[in-house]
């Protein structure tokens, strides 16, 4: 199509493009139906009958500036990519003015080069194979996302090996005000725990730790003091799961549970697993683990000189604060959805999600039987702050992610405000709505069978997901029919 640039601006103005004797008038909203129909063009074995070239669909956005469209479309000509259909519409995205929809014939390498080049001039929203051919390879989709400025994120659970060791501070590197800063023996012990975590790989059992008598005594002090408060301060879900951990993971004041035992317990209860970590992770890396139902967990114990205080998360905080609620399916899903929302999100969006996580999973309150109860791990592992949060003197506000995400997180003092939700379900629904307001040009879906994340950038992935949903609905309908309760239309 050597002369396709001539007269294109007329087509741009009304959002249509006519080629030869054929007028193409498919709207963007009709695109998905057409893509679905392309699945019929398959061989006898159910595989696409692809030629050497294939037709692909690209949607990209542009600012309404002079020459912007010309520059973008000229790239197709330079890469000898044949245009089959072009149209435009007013963009629904805040950061652009127009969306351009293009069908084009190309070979694999041409398409890869084109998308990389096009991403320097425009924001690519979607790349979708067309005409029944197989979807772009996973590596190609990843390249397209990264070329579009999307931060790297793990696509499968084993990818966490690449980010679990990006620890901000660990081992013997303690701040000068840390209780164990001048204790050489303690610092050496912390380095041992760091080495165990840094050498761990996905799929391996978590190494068993032989805790010292001093470490067990420190754990025992924390364990005893907190158990005095749990009946009157902890939420019902926490109190339900704590006895199960005593039974199955040997929770007691004279025994520090092993992470491998706890991980197996959680796997059977909510699908979560434990991964040892050497210290603080960045919010992005920590939340990414939650997306795969993986909780990064420290194994070291706070310094014995101050058993009821720690400036950092330790195994007392993790095992007594987090684990009992990670065993609760509804809470586990809430945590995972925050993690999924963070994948590929902007730095600003991750900061907002991390702040919401901090004031819910770490310091959240809920209402039960007309009374305030704690479900945040930071509260449930701190004797003094657990008392303070429910003393009637703390500043209590309703949980609203839009407001909560701007609250300052206090690390070494009590929080200036605590946020209360009516239930985990309410908090989860509010976070879902909030996540929709955070700009991300794609959607992700967690596949529990492969423990991987599907990036829903093309109709092939979406159709696969729809098939899974239909299968699940068939099972529900069959179960209801057996109960004599037909599924509502």
Automatic annotation (TrEMBL):
E.C. designation(s): 1.14.16.4
Pfam families, per the entry: Biopterin_H
GO cellular component, one term: neuron projection
Sample GO molecular function, one term: iron ion binding
Residue ranges constituting the ACT domain according to the UniProt record: 57-130
Binding site for Fe cation: 317, 322, 362
InterPro entries reported in the protein's UniProt record: ACT-like_dom_sf (IPR045865), ACT_dom (IPR002912), ArAA_hydroxylase (IPR001273), ArAA_hydroxylase_Fe/CU_BS (IPR018301), ArAA_hydroxylase_sf (IPR036951), Aro-AA_hydroxylase_C_sf (IPR036329), Aromatic-AA_hydroxylase_C (IPR019774), Trp_5_mOase (IPR005963)
Binding positions (L-tryptophan): 280, 302, 310, 381, 411
Catalytic activity: (6R)-L-erythro-5,6,7,8-tetrahydrobiopterin + L-tryptophan + O2 = 5-hydroxy-L-tryptophan + (4aS,6R)-4a-hydroxy-L-erythro-5,6,7,8-tetrahydrobiopterin
Keyword annotations: Iron, Metal-binding, Monooxygenase, Oxidoreductase, Serotonin biosynthesis
Pathway: Aromatic compound metabolism; serotonin biosynthesis; serotonin from L-tryptophan: step 1/2
Names of the cofactor(s): Fe(2+)
PROSITE patterns: ACT, BH4_AAA_HYDROXYL_1, BH4_AAA_HYDROXYL_2
Domain Biopterin-dependent aromatic amino acid hydroxylase family profile residues, every copy: 136-484
Gene3D superfamilies noted in UniProt: Aromatic amino acid hydroxylase
Biological processes, Gene Ontology terms: aromatic amino acid metabolic process; serotonin biosynthetic process
Record flagged with keyword Repeat: no
Function of the molecule: Oxidizes L-tryptophan to 5-hydroxy-l-tryptophan in the rate-determining step of serotonin biosynthesis.
Family: Belongs to the biopterin-dependent aromatic amino acid hydroxylase family.
Protein name per UniProt: tryptophan 5-monooxygenase
């Amino acid at each position: 199509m050597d002369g396709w640039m001539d007269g294109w601006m007329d087509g741009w103005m009304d959002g249509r493009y006519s080629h030869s004797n054929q007028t193409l008038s498919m709207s963007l909203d009709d695109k998905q139906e057409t893509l679905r129909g392309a699945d019929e063009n398959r061989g006898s074995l159910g595989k696409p009958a692809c030629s050497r070239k294939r037709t692909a669909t690209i949607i990209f956005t542009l600012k309404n500036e002079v020459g912007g469209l010309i520059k973008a479309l000229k790239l197709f000509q330079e890469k000898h990519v044949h245009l089959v259909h072009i149209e435009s519409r007013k963009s629904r995205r805040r950061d652009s003015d127009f969306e351009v929809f293009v069908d084009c014939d190309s070979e694999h390498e041409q398409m890869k080069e084109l998308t990389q080049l096009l991403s320097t001039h425009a924001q690519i929203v979607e790349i979708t194979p067309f005409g029944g051919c197989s979807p772009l390879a996973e590596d190609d989709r990843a390249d397209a996302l990264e070329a579009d400025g999307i931060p790297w994120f793990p696509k499968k659970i084993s990818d966490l090996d690449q980010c679990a060791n990006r620890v901000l501070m660990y081992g013997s590197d303690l701040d000068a005000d840390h209780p164990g800063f001048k204790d050489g023996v303690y610092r050496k012990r912390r380095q041992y725990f760091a080495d165990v975590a840094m050498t761990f790989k996905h799929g391996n059992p978590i190494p068993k730790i032989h805790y010292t008598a001093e470490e067990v005594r420190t754990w025992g002090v924390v364990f005893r003091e907190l158990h005095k408060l749990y009946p009157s301060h902890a939420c019902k879900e926490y109190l339900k799961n704590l006895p199960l951990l005593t039974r199955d993971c040997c929770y007691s004041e004279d025994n520090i549970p092993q992470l491998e035992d706890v991980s197996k317990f959680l796997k059977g209860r909510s699908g979560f697993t434990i991964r040892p970590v050497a210290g603080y992770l960045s919010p992005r890396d920590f939340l990414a683990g939650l997306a795969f139902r993986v909780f990064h967990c420290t194994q070291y114990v706070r310094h014995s000189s101050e058993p009821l205080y720690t400036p950092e998360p330790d195994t007392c905080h993790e095992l007594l604060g987090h684990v009992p609620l990670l065993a609760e399916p509804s809470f586990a899903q809430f945590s995972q959805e925050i993690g999924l929302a963070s994948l590929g999100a902007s730095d600003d969006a991750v900061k907002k999600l991390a702040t919401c996580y901090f004031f819910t999973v770490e310091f959240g309150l809920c209402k039960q039987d007309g009374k305030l109860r704690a479900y945040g791990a930071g509260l449930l592992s701190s004797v003094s702050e657990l008392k303070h949060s429910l003393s009637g003197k703390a500043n209590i506000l309703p949980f609203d992610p839009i407001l909560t995400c701007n609250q300052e997180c206090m690390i070494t003092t009590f929080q200036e405000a605590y946020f209360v939700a009516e239930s985990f379900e309410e908090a989860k629904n509010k976070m879902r709505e909030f996540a929709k307001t955070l700009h991300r040009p794609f959607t992700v879906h967690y596949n529990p069978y492969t423990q991987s994340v599907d990036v829903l950038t093309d109709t092939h992935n979406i159709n696969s997901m729809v098939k899974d949903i239909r299968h699940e609905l068939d099972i529900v309908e069959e179960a209801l029919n057996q109960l004599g309760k037909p599924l509502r239309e």
